[in-house]
Design brief:
single chain, 476 residues, alpha/beta, eight-stranded parallel barrel, two-stranded antiparallel sheet, 14 strands, 12% strand, globular, binds phosphoenolpyruvate, binds manganese (II) ion, Phospho-2-dehydro-3-deoxyheptonate aldolase, 3-deoxy-7-phosphoheptulonate synthase activity, DAHP_synth_2, Aldolase_TIM, manganese
């Protein structure tokens, strides 16, 4: 059948059907690569378990469990990202820094889906091109840490490494292999609810009441946003009136939503990596549609790059100030020797004050290596802009986030390159973790609802703010 390519729903004509057929993949498993070739390479951020026998049991169970996603969905995303690389689509990727098992519950899932959908509508309106939505959800549990231990109440304890490794509670910091199974089942439950929401009308946001702009403090800004929302909801309403949304492929009732996470715990990732078309068809990580390599684990000859180079999934690489421009070409070539457009997404995260010093050289290195128009460039304006508030809260200033984003857009334009997306840490809930935005959250307000166990996230209002600002930038 031709409809087996859908992700969480039937693809809609405007937002998901690739202009060209899903590209037939080149030679599948690269030379020298196997499901465990990464185990022969130096590894960083590795987890040490006490109970090795239990690890063996858990990994066998994970290998036995069914995939969470399937290969045609992944091929579909790769085709959409090819269009991002070609400048025909925009990528919106976002979600928690560290997803907790506790977030696997109706409200947090619905709220995150809602904010991502609304942002994508605003972005589509602004840029007039379809948006690819990729959630940092249903598996974003593992966290790399700068130090293996931390001091809490004067005592040195193991760092919290994410819910799939240990617990945030200091009494629960030993690495527990059973948490890997917990990660699988919480991912499955999250994904199951996401899929059912997007296939049953949750994506229909044409009611102006689903847009709450009351938080916007400045009158002119609110009028500005309201005008965009009115035009959006009018257009959506019109489509409903003329019946354009009555077929199953309507963009109003259903949308594509993909899931992603950092591929940090390679034992887990390898268990979810399968060869659904046999060895000649290549290896797919069927635990997510998209996985990425973090800024701390992208060593050219390291275990993470080795594991990732064998995947058919589209993959991401975080690129920060510590990435020498001279090494970038070799890294991309290792991950994408066939130069497949959309295969590799570079997620840049320098900081508002450093982007000018690094991004132009990185763009030049990509061009020199022959990957211009092949890689997707996306901006993560979060990780280079983390700071401590006077209260001690880890926070980020909205203005710096927006400055890195607009500076990145400008630099890409100047260099004849294309910034194809944004990568954000956000939540659909009304948390107080980042300062600023149209709600003008002050540093003194941070304790009001500070929830994160890892990095500070944009709340619902601040996330929408980013979408409005990017949309207006494109409109110009
Ligand atoms: C993250 O995305 O949460 C993260 C740890 O980012 P980076 O690898 O860029 O530091
Ligand atoms: Mn983070």
């Amino acid at each position: 059948s031709t409809s087996s390519q859908s992700t969480m729903s039937s693809p809609s004509p405007a937002s998901s059907r690739p202009s060209s057929a899903v590209p037939s993949a080149p030679a599948r498993v690269p030379a020298g690569w196997s499901l465990d070739s990464w185990t022969t390479k130096p590894i960083v951020q590795d987890v040490q378990y006490e109970n090795k026998a239990q690890v063996t049991k858990v990994l066998a169970k994970l290998r036995h469990l069914p995939p969470l996603v399937c290969a045609p969905e992944i091929d579909q995303l790769r085709a959409q990202l090819k269009e991002v690389a070609e400048g025909k689509r925009f990528l919106l990727q976002g979600g928690d820094c560290a997803e907790l098992f506790d977030y696997c519950s109706a409200d947090p899932i619905e709220n995150k889906l809602k904010v991502l959908l609304q942002m994508s509508l605003v972005l589509t309106w602004g840029s007039r091109i379809p948006v690819v939505r990729v959630a940092r959800m249903a598996g974003q549990y593992a966290k790399p840490r700068s130090k293996p231990t931390e001091i809490i109440d004067g005592k040195e304890v193991l760092s919290f490494r994410g819910d799939n490794v240990n617990g945030f509670d200091v009494a629960d910091r030993a690495a527990d292999p059973d948490r890997l199974l917990g990660a699988y089942f919480h991912s499955a439950a999250t994904l199951n609810y996401l899929r059912s929401l997007v296939s049953s009308g949750f994506a229909d946001l044409h009611h102006p009441s689903s847009w709450d702009l009351n938080h916007v403090k400045k009158h002119e800004v609110r009028q500005d946003y309201q005008a965009i929302v009115n035009r959006l909801t009018d257009a959506l309403h019109y489509m409903k009136t003329i019946g354009a949304d009555t077929n199953a492929a309507s963009p109003l009732s259903t949308v594509d939503m993909f899931v992603s996470h950092e591929a940090l715990l390679l034992e887990y990732e390898a268990c979810l990596t399968r060869m659904p078309h046999g060895p000649a068809g290549g290896a797919y990580n069927l635990g997510a549609h998209f996985v990425w390599i973090g800024d701390r684990t992208r060593q050219l000859d390291g275990a993470h790059v080795e594991y990732m180079r064998g995947l058919r999934n589209p993959i991401g690489v975080k690129v920060g100030p510590s990435m020498p421009a001279a090494d970038l070409g070799a890294l991309i070539a290792r991950l994408d020797p066939e130069k497949e457009p959309g295969k590799v997404t570079l997620i840049t995260r320098y900081g508002a004050d450093k982007v000018r010093a690094h991004l132009p050289a990185h763009i030049a290195a990509v061009k020199a290596a022959g990957y211009d128009g092949v890689v997707v460039w996306t901006c993560d304006p979060m990780h280079g802009n983390t700071e401590s508030a006077p209260s001690g809260h880890k926070t980020r200033q909205f203005d710096k986030i927006v400055r890195e984003l607009s500076e990145s857009l400008r630099i890409h334009k100047e260099c004849g390159s294309y910034l194809g997306g944004v990568h954000l840490e956000l939540t659909g809930d009304r948390v107080t973790e980042c300062t600023g935005g149209s709600m003008e959250l002050a540093a003194k307000d941070l304790p009001v609802n500070y929830q994160t166990y890892c990095d500070p996230r944009l709340n619902y209002e601040q996330a929408l703010d980013v979408a409005f600002l990017v949309a207006k930038y494109h409109e110009r």
